[in-house]
């Protein structure tokens, strides 16, 4: 994933959250890799985001999700202020 792809992804998720009045929490905005540890729903064979631009290692899915949620929250602030 490139930085540009990550930017567009976070903006898109923020737009959906705004449109559908979704809070940005670990139970409402999460990656496939976070479903099993967070919601306790068994997942097998899923590909997901565990490495972000600038990372040199595979990250913990929930920690990576926290980074994504922080970026989505930032995009929401920008959308709400414009």
User: Regions with pLDDT < 50 over 5+ consecutive residues?
Assistant: none
The best one-word shape is globular
Number of strand elements: 0
Beta-strand content estimate: under 5%
Into how many domains do the coordinates divide?
Answer: 1
Q: What is the overall number of helices?
A: 3
Give the helix proportion (percent range). 55-70%
The major pleated sheet works out as: none
Give an overview in words:
The chain has 82 residues and is an all-alpha fold. The protein has one domain (3-81). Helices cover 56% and strands 0% of the residues. It has helices spanning 3-19, 32-39, 61-81. The protein is globular, with a radius of gyration of 13 Å.
Record keyword descriptors for this entry.
0% strand; 56% helix; 82 residues; globular; 3 helices; mainly alpha
How would you summarize what this structure contains?
By secondary structure, the chain is an all-alpha fold. 56% of the residues lie in helices and 0% in strands. The chain has helices at 3-19, 32-39, 61-81.
């Amino acid at each position: 994933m490139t930085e540009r792809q990550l930017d567009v992804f976070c903006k898109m998720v923020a737009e959906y959250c705004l449109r559908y009045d979704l809070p940005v929490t670990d139970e409402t905005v999460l990656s496939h890799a976070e479903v099993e540890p967070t919601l306790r729903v068994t997942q097998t064979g899923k590909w997901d985001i565990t490495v972000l631009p600038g990372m040199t290692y595979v990250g913990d899915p929930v920690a990576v999700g926290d980074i994504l949620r922080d970026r989505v929250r930032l995009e929401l602030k920008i959308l709400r202020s414009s």
